Amino acid sequence: MSDQIQFIVEKLNQEPFRKSYNLITFDSLESMQLLQLLNDVLGEIDPKHAVDIREELPEQTAKRMLTLLGILKYKPPGSISDLSAFRQGLVTGSKPVIHPVLHWLLQRTNELKKRAYLARFLVKLEVPAEFLQDDMVADINKQYEELMEAFKNLHKECEQLKTSGLSTAEIRRDISAMEEEKDQLIKRVERLKKRVETVQNHQRMLEIARQLRLEKEREESLAQQKQEQKNQLFHAEQRLQRAQLQLKEMHHAVVDSKPESLMKKLEEEINFNSYLVTEKIPRELESKKNSAYFLQKVVAEPAMSQSDLHVLEIKINEVNAQMNQLIEKRMMKYEPIDSKFSMYRQQASIISRKKEAKAEELQAAKEEMSSTERQMLQKTSQAHELEGSEVLKGDEFKHYVNKLRSKNTFYKKKRLEIAEITAEYGILQRTEELLKQRHEAIQQQLQAIEDKKGISGYSYTQEELERVSAVKSEMDEMKGRTLDNMSEMVRKLNAMVAEKKASLAPVIKELRQLRQKCQELTQECDEKKIQYDSCAAGLESNRSALEQEVKGLLEECVQEESNYRYINCMKRNLEIQLQRAKEEMKAYVSSDPQERRRAIREQYTRMILEQENLGKKLREKQKVVRESHGPNMKQIKMWQDFEQLMECKRECFLKQQNQAAIGQVIQEGGKDRLVL
What we know:
Blueprint: H1 2-13, H2 23-27, H3 31-45, H4 58-71, H5 80-92, H6 95-107, H7 109-122, H8 129-132, H9 135-163, H10 168-197, H11 202-255, H12 259-300, H13 306-334, H14 339-387, H15 395-453, H16 458-589, H17 593-597, H18 600-675
């Protein structure tokens, strides 16, 4: 309890209450102050309840609070007697009642705000059945229900959008980032345009580049169309293969079957399908509907605690025990009479269960067969894609096996040749190793001889000198060729540079003039841009002022139109009421009795007289019933006692018959034993 009060005080000291309570001041609050505090919390959840409870009666306050707590699905602890104590405590402002309510409300304020908001539109207004007989009232009620369903759908969409992760801040950041990227791309395009403008025939090149881009896009679209057509062709081929397979199966079935077998097969299939349609599927559908109904009831119920679940389990166990006792009593009561019927019922239930099991097995086998056929078609299409041909059958398969055998013999022959080549390669590799070893031994002997003669390393140096001289000669040849090529290249480059200088001289002169002209035009453009910006700012301010004025005039026009329509409606209502009053007065003062009977006053007078007569008759009838109530109750009691007496006699008679039958059977058995 102290933790609960501490939580309440902390929540009340925060936004939006700002009460500045502590445990002592909160505990010292009077009942009226507690009720006002509870009303403030309810007013925060639903603004309609933000009132001063001193300005209304205690019964009205309690009724209003109980209504809102019922809408918010608050469950008071305890049974029905505790519920009456809860209502009384809510009226008097009892702390043991108010504190749990405050704790529950402050725990889930946001959720309850949403629930109270939805209750304003989703709590259905109950219309009596006698009023719904009127067509206008029924139509309005139907429109009301349709609007309620539309509100539900819109609220769901709104919640989905809120939880989808999209926020206005993120969208604005994305827009600003995209605008920055756009500005960067515009600047980059301008720089590229300035670079391209110096190139000759840049317009033609740009046009060619644009055409190239269009052709590439067209190529991509054509490639996509080609891929789509390939997919369509593949699906069409699969459908064709399935149709051909079904046709072959039907041909095989027709060749090997007779009309009697086909009719028998069709009858079996029709019986199976009719069993599915009439018995199995409706039973499953009914069970699914029942489970869905119970699940909806469970969802509609408020959240339950562990104690509530425990109470429900105890009730379920008690009900199951009562059901078992009733079943045992029924079996004991009807066992002698219905023994044969119970055996037949058991056999029928066993047969029905077997029938259901076999139907499920048949359904599973059909599904497995269809899945196997789909896998076979898929494997056939894959084989067709990989090998380029269909699965072989019959003579084609035999021809394919013979071809594989011939290829197998050819493969074995080639494998023997590869083995011989591999053996020869091993021999040659071994010969190479022996020669390398001999070469190393000779090199070692040569080195030993050189050491004896005092010229060690002579052979190695000789080989290196020969190799270096060969490399040097090759490098000299390459240098000579490279120098010749470089001199020729330098000559060509000088000629090209001279030619380019000569061709670019007039272009450079023209470019200087164009640059000077460009600077002048840029300066003029800046001046014109400043003038344009100032003019645009003035026009924009004028436009905004005019828009505000037009907006105000439009709002005024709409207001005047609504006033005009309201006045016209009021005028029509008053004219209708005036006309009805004139007709009523005319009928009332008329000398014709038939006309006077049509007057509303006369009709209500007749209805009042009829109701008074009916009330007098009912009072007389009530008086008669009260006078005869005592004798009638005695007579009912006598008939009940008589019925119990007759029931007792019937049971005694049945017991006497059973005992007589058992005695007769025992006597017959004794006689049989004596005869034996």
